[in-house]
Specification:
The protein is of the alpha+beta class. It is built from 7 helices and 15 strands. Helix 5 crosses helix 7. The structure holds N-(5'-phosphopyridoxyl)-D-alanine.
């Protein structure tokens, strides 16, 4: 059984329990992060911590209840070291446990529930099939909270395939990844506004692309353009970069992982090997 973390303790994950009146359980009033573990090393830890703090701040969670980077790093390293071969570490922090159920927090001094565990790597793939699905999520998709029911609705509509979400004819992201589109040899990704999660992998890919000869333009991408794409990529902490080979059953490009996607993944993984934030 894998080692998990709960409120300062490390123990077998299946022996851990959290209170029913935790606001994370009742209202998804909890923030979370997934940090990739690549070749045994945590990647972009400081960036993930900054996003955790930003989301918690937007939810007005008391900052003194959240771990600082040093404490968080210790927890995350201990989980990565205790679970060799894992592909990522999940960390969740709720606003806390209520004396009784009430949507308005009883106080700003509740005791948070802090938990963590290891995630498996995604199996390597030559690409995934995806469906274009209407984005039915809320207006603050930039906040990484555990309220993911809109993301789940998208996945459930996709019959086992991945999704590319669109809102009003514009591509947003995928249910657990950001989206990049290659058009006439140039790489584009939707702007980081409130319609999408500001993915750490997305940001790293943009940085790596800028110095590796495949600059990325951040701009609105229409569904029409998506239909003409030479390549579509998904990026996330658990998948790095992978290709969408078919959209709604139609091949994207020649229906296999594109050459630029392969190159981008190699460039990104090279960057992972030199990452020094952990
Ligand atoms: N998901 N968009 C959404 C909706 C996501 O849930 C994620 C990450 C991303 C990519 O973000 P990042 O590159 O920082 O992992 C984009 C994680 C992996 C998850 O919930 O499992």
């Amino acid at each position: 059984m894998q080692t998990g973390y709960l409120n300062g303790e490390y123990a077998p994950l299946n022996e851990m329990n959290i209170p029913v009146l935790d606001r994370g359980v009742l209202f998804a009033d909890a923030v979370y992060e997934v940090v990739p573990v690549f070749e045994g090393r945590l990647i972009a830890l400081a960036d993930h911590h900054a996003r955790l703090m930003r989301t918690a701040g937007a939810l007005k969670m008391p900052p003194e209840h959240l771990p600082d980077l040093r404490d968080w790093s210790e927890i995350m390293h201990r989980l990565a070291d205790g679970n060799p071969g894992c592909g990522g570490i999940y960390y969740q922090h709720s606003r806390g446990v209520e004396p009784a159920r009430a949507l308005r927090p009883a106080s700003d001094d509740l005791t948070p529930t802090r938990l963590g565990f290891a995630l498996a790597s995604l199996p390597p793939s030559g690409g995934v099939r995806a469906r274009l699905i209407e984005d039915q999520r809320w207006g603050r998709c930039d906040l990484k909270t555990t309220g993911l029911i809109g993301n789940l609705l998208g996945l459930l509509a996709a019959d086992g395939e991945e999704v590319v979400l669109q809102r009003d004819g514009w591509v947003t992201e995928s249910s657990t990844s950001n989206v990049f589109v290659v058009l006439d040899g140039a790489v584009h990704t939707p702007k980081a506004d409130q319609r999408i999660l500001h993915g750490i992998t997305r940001a790293l890919a943009i940085q790596v692309g800028a110095c590796s000869g495949w600059p990325v333009t951040e701009r609105d991408i229409s569904v029409d353009e998506l239909g003409r794409a030479d390549e579509i990529w998904l990026t996330s902490s658990l998948r790095a970069i992978s290709a969408v080979t078919h959209l709604d059953g139609t091949p994207v490009g020649d229906g296999a992982e594109g050459a630029l996607c392969r190159r981008a993944r190699e460039d990104l993984l090279r960057r992972y090997r030199t990452d020094s934030q952990a």
